From TrEMBL:
This is Fatty-acid--CoA ligase. Belongs to the ATP-dependent AMP-binding enzyme family. Gene3D superfamilies: 3.30.300.30, N-terminal domain of ligase-like (3.40.50.12780). GO terms for biological process: fatty acid metabolic process. Residues 38-409 form the AMP-dependent synthetase/ligase domain. Transmembrane segments: none annotated. It comes from Noviherbaspirillum saxi. Keywords: Fatty acid metabolism, Ligase, Lipid metabolism. NCBIfam families: PRK06018.1 (NF004674), PRK06187.1 (NF004837), PRK07008.1 (NF005426). Residues 458-532 form the AMP-binding enzyme C-terminal domain. The lineage of its organism: Bacteria, Pseudomonadati, Pseudomonadota, Betaproteobacteria, Burkholderiales.
Length: 550
C-alpha cells in the first residue's frame, strides 16, 4: 500500500474505521422497521425487517466464531439473492472474515479451483445447488464444512457432502449478543473472482474502506440515486460483484430491499415488481430482455417502477427507448467491472443539457456515462500517451480510485498497474464534457485494413431493427483486410428479416466500410456466467466461416 507524507498539523476529527458492520448497525437503528422481502428457494415469500436482519447477522457472527472462523479467514457462499445471503454479507465481513461469493453458473471444476485458490474455510449454499456442491465438495481441500441455507426439515436425509450443517440450526444455537469488532478499515472484507473467459479466474479482494466508500458514492443522485423512499429489487446477482454493491448501498440509505431468489424469468420478476411496489432495479441487458418480452406479450404496464441501472455489457439504445417511451422507466447506463467494485461511470444529464433537443439528450444518455466522484479515468494510445477528450478519438481506457484494484489476490498476474492506473481492457472515447463511451472490449475490436471497427455500435444498430431480438458482431478472417465484421443474429419470435434487409438497414447510420460483410441467423447466442454474450465462443464457432466477400 502506498504511504503518503504526514502534515505537521493533523486534523482533529474522530478516528473511526470505515467498516461494513456500521452499515447494518445504521440500518437497524435508523430504518429498523423497513422491510426486506425475499422470494425464497422454497418458493414462498419471506418478509422481515432490517432489525431482524441485524439480529440474525449477529447470531450468525457468533456461529462463525464457534466454528473457529477468525479475522481474515475466507468463507464462501453459493447462493441466490435472498435474506440469508444478506445476513452472511454482514456476519462474515462484519466479524472480520472475508465474504467470498462464488458464481454458481461456473463449471464445478472451476468452482473447486476458486474455492481452493481462496482457501475457503466454510461454504454456505442454497438448496438449489445441492447437486452442484455434491459434484465438487470432495475436491475442496480447505473447506472444513458445508452449510445448507435452509430450515431443519428441508435438510437432505442423506448426502455425500462431508460435514454438512443446517443454517437455521446453527442460528438457533447462537445468541444475538454480539459486538461488531473494530479493526483496520483496510482489512479485506470480500472476494470476487473475475468471470475468467480466458485463463483461470483471478480474485479481486475488496477492503472495508473500499466497500464503504463505494457504497457512499454509488448511492449519489447521479449514480444509483437510491433513497429511503425507494423499493429496490437487485436483479443483478449477489454473486456478481456483490450485486453492484446494492446489499451495502441500499441498507445504507434505508430503502426497502426486494430479493427475487432463483426466479429470474420475466413473469416472476414482473409479479414481484408489482406486489412489492418496486421503484428501482439494476441488471445486465439480457435479463431485461426477458422482462420486456413478458410485459410486451401480455400488454402490461409498470405501476411503480421508475428507474433502472443497466450495465455489465452495453445497453442497446433500442432497449433504453422501449423502457423510456413505452413504460416511462428512466434508464441509467452504467459501466464498471469486478476490479472496480464495480461502479465507474453512470450516464445522467446535467443542467446545461436540459434545453438540448431530445435526440441529443438521448445520444448523451446512450454513452456509458460520467465518472462518479472517486473514479478518475483517461484514454491512452498503444504508446501510453494520453489521448484527447473529443468524443471521437478512441484509446485504451485506464482508471484509478480508492475502490479500484491495485493487484489481484495472491498477486496473480503480477504488477497490473501502469504508472498507478489500472488498464481496463476496454476501448473508449471521452467527450469534452467527460462522458465516456465504450467502443469495445479490446479483445473484441475488429481490425480491418489497419483500422478498428467497434462492434458495440454495429450490434446496437442491428438491435434497433424490429425483427431482431439479439445481435453479436465478430471479426472473421479476410485475405485483403485481415478481418471483416460478421453479424450473428437471433430473430424475435415469429419475426422475419433477410440478410439483405439487415445490411441495407445500416445505410446512412454508419461509415460504409463499417457495414457487416455478412449476416448469419442462429437460435440463441451463448451467454456466460454473468449474463453476458460470450464473444470468444462465437468466434470459436465461426472460425472456419468464409465471408462472401473473400
Ligand atoms: P465484469 O467484471 O464481469 O463485470 O466485466 C467487466 C466488463 O464488462 C468491462 O470491462 C466491460 O468490458 C464490460 N461492461 C460493463 N459495463 C458495460 C457497459 N455499460 N457497456 C459496455 N461494456 C460494459
Amino acid at each position: 500500500m502506498t504511504e503518503f507524507p504526514k502534515s505537521p498539523l493533523m486534523g482533529q476529527m474522530m478516528s473511526q474505521p470505515l467498516l461494513i458492520s456500521s452499515i447494518i448497525k445504521h440500518a437497524d437503528r435508523y430504518y429498523g422497521s423497513n422491510e426486506i422481502v425475499s422470494r425464497r428457494v422454497e418458493g414462498d415469500i419471506h418478509r422481515y425487517t432490517y432489525r431482524d436482519c441485524h439480529k440474525r447477522s449477529r447470531q450468525m457472527a457468533n456461529a462463525l466464531g464457534g466454528l473457529g472462523v477468525k479475522i481474515g479467514d475466507r468463507v464462501a457462499t453459493l447462493a441466490w439473492n435472498g435474506y440469508r445471503h444478506l445476513e452472511l454479507y454482514y456476519a462474515i465481513s462484519g466479524s472480520g472474515a472475508v465474504m467470498h461469493t462464488i458464481n454458481p453458473r461456473l463449471h464445478p471444476e472451476q468452482i473447486a479451483y476458486i474455492a481452493n485458490h481462496a482457501e475457503d474455510m466454510y461454504l454456505f449454499f442454497d438448496m438449489t445447488f445441492l447437486p452442484l456442491v455434491e459434484a465438487f465438495a470432495a475436491h475442496c481441500k480447505t473447506v472444513k464444512g458445508f452449510i445448507a441455507m435452509c430450515d431443519k426439515d428441508r435438510m437432505p436425509a442423506e448426502s455425500k457432502i462431508p460435514n454438512l450443517m443446517c443454517y437455521e440450526e446453527l442460528l438457533e444455537k447462537n445468541s444475538d449478543q454480539y459486538e461488531w469488532p473494530l479493526f483496520d478499515e483496510n482489512s479485506a472484507s470480500s472476494l470476487c473472482y473475475t468471470s475468467g473467459t480466458t485463463g483461470n479466474p483471478k480474485g479481486a479482494l475488496y477492503s472495508h474502506r473500499s466497500t464503504v466508500l463505494h457504497s457512499y458514492a454509488s448511492a449519489m443522485p447521479d449514480a444509483l440515486n437510491v433513497s429511503a423512499r425507494d423499493s429496490v429489487l437487485p436483479v443483478v446477482p449477489m454473486f456478481h460483484v456483490n450485486a453492484w454493491g446494492l446489499p451495502y448501498s441500499v441498507p445504507l440509505t434505508g430503502a426497502k430491499l426486494v430479493f427475487p431468489g432463483p426466479a429470474l424469468d420475466g413473469k416472476s420478476v414482473y409479479e414481484l415488481f408489482e406486489q412489492e411496489k418496486v421503484t428501482f432495479s439494476a441488471g445486465v441487458p439480457t435479463v431485461w430482455l426477458g422482462l420486456l418480452t413478458y410485459v410486451g406479450q401480455n400488454n402490461l404496464k409498470f405501476s411503480t417502477f421508475k428507474r433502472t441501472v443497466i450495465g455489465g455489457s452495453a445497453c442497446p439504445p433500442a432497449m433504453m427507448k422501449t423502457f423510456r417511451q413505452q413504460y416511462g422507466v428512466e434508464v441509467v447506463h452504467a459501466w464498471g467491472m469486478t476490479e472496480m467494485s464495480p461502479l465507474g461511470t453512470a450516464g445522467t444529464l446535467q443542467s446545461h443539457h436540459m434545453d438540448l433537443p431530445e435526440e441529443k439528450k438521448q445520444a448523451i444518455l446512450e454513452k456509458q456515462g460520467h465518472a462518479i466522484y472517486g473514479v478518475d479515468m483517461k484514454i491512452v494510445g498503444d504508446d501510453g500517451k494520453e489521448l484527447p477528450w473529443d468524443g471521437k478519438t478512441y484509446g485504451n481506457l485506464l482508471v484509478k480510485g480508492p475502490w479500484i484494484i491495485s493487484s489481484y489476490f495472491k498477486n496473480e498476474a503480477g504488477d497490473v498497474l501502469q504508472d498507478g492506473w489500472f488498464p481496463t481492457g476496454d476501448v473508449a472515447t471521452i467527450d469534452a464534457d467527460g462522458y465516456m463511451q465504450i467502443t469495445d472490449r479490446s479483445k473484441d475490436v475488429i481490425k480491418s485494413g489497419g483500422e478498428w471497427i467497434g462492434t458495440i455500435d454495429l450490434e446496437n444498430i442491428a438491435m434497433a431493427h424490429p425483427a431482431v431480438q439479439q445481435a453479436a458482431c465478430i471479426g472473421v478472417f479476410h485475405p485483403k483486410w485481415d478481418e471483416r465484421p460478421l453479424l450473428v443474429v437471433v430473430k424475435k419470435p415469429g419475426a422475419e428479416v433477410t440478410k439483405e434487409e439487415l445490411i441495407k438497414f445500416y445505410e446512412g447510420k454508419i461509415a460504409k466500410w463499417w457495414t457487416p460483410d455478412d449476416v448469419t441467423f442462429v437460435d440463441a447466442l451463448p451467454i456466460g456466467a454473468t449474463g453476458k454474450v460470450l464473444k470468444n465462443r462465437i468466434r470459436e464457432q465461426f472460425k472456419e466461416y468464409r465471408l462472401p466477400t473473400t
